[in-house]
Amino acid sequence: MPAIEQLQLNDLINQAIKERASAIYFNISNYPTVEIFGSLRSLKDKPILTKEFLETIASNFLSDSQRKILDEKKELKIGYDWSSKIRLILNFFYQKQSLSISIKMVPNEIMNINDFEIADIMKQVVAMNSGLVIICGPASSGRSMTALSILDNINKNQEKRIVTIEEPIEFQFINNLSIINQREVGSDVESFEEGLKNVIDESVDVVYVSKIQSQEEINLLLQVASSGKMVLAIIDSESIIELMDKIFGSFDLSEKEWAKSLVTESLKVVINQRILQKIGGGQIVVAEILTMTPSSKPIIKSAKFDQLQSIMQTSRQDGMQDLESVIRNLLQRGAIRPEEAKKYLSSLNI
């Protein structure tokens, strides 16, 4: 990268870090855009992005083999250690036949479980020896932050063997009481599917999977969880009901009954989360939570997923909660603004 463009890039990233931005977005013919506490701001004091500048960013961060993958697949995500305090997750992709880049800023410090609004359920997950825990929600809802905090707590307090399957590795763990092997898809293992196949028969206590998408991956995830391991996985889904449809929709009709038994026995907790902006600055993780109890298991086994909302609303004694009640409670406490609550509560009049 030419010296002047290197300086421009360094300046952009360091400014974003200083302003506590969570991401920077680079799209051709636009100003660079930073995301700070959920709000987007165009940096109009910076030059408009050119094709040449974006291409030189790619040349600076990507090896020859990675560039070849990007050219073939048109998308690539990598991790890069920017400093002792920040790791970058760079996503290179194409739109309108032009290269675009997003950079996620990941602090090299993990939040303590006790600092989460959902600390109680996270502590329950940490105490589990087996079963499946799914964290869902839209992109940029802090799902990996929650998962990594759970893993960090296990690493510091329990003697476990942990295997992660990630794309890319977001936080680089150092062994504490546990032994952690982090496998990056594309470099250490060919695919999530291959990574899951590898751990089924391994002597592993905890497995973390940063992304589950395909039918085969869901099938393998359930098999790993049913093999006596504690499995933590992230799945894209806007709601727990949508998640259940996605899981059972991945099985053929002839496998449905087997799948229902496997899910009700393996699945322990589902956390569907969002990040809200707090009054006075900062963010808060909120979530609807489903736990497997004598009341929720029959609903899932009978595939009457629309009844799960009612169960979550009325089963707080079992660790469950619905998203609407949580957000209304934060609003009443004065923790968030009505405008922030309105994004998630269509019935709120403001």
What does this structure look like?
The chain is globular and about 65 Å long. The longest helix is centred in the first third of the chain and has 16 residues, at about 5-20. The protein folds into two domains: about 5-105, 2-Layer Sandwich (Beta-Lactamase), CATH 3.30.450; about 115-340, 3-Layer(aba) Sandwich (Rossmann fold), CATH 3.40.50. The strands form two sheets. It has a seven-stranded mixed beta sheet with strand order 9-8-10-11-7-12-13, with helices on both faces. It has a six-stranded antiparallel beta sheet with strand order 3-2-1-6-5-4. It has about 350 residues and is α/β, with parallel strands linked by helices. It contains 13 helices and 13 strands.
Q: Can you tell me the overall shape? A: globular
Termini gap? 50 Å
Question: At the first level of CATH, what is the class of the largest domain?
Answer: Alpha Beta
> Whole-number average pLDDT?
92
Q: Give the amount of beta strand, in percent.
A: 25-35%
Instruction: Classify the secondary structure makeup into a structural class.
Output: alpha/beta
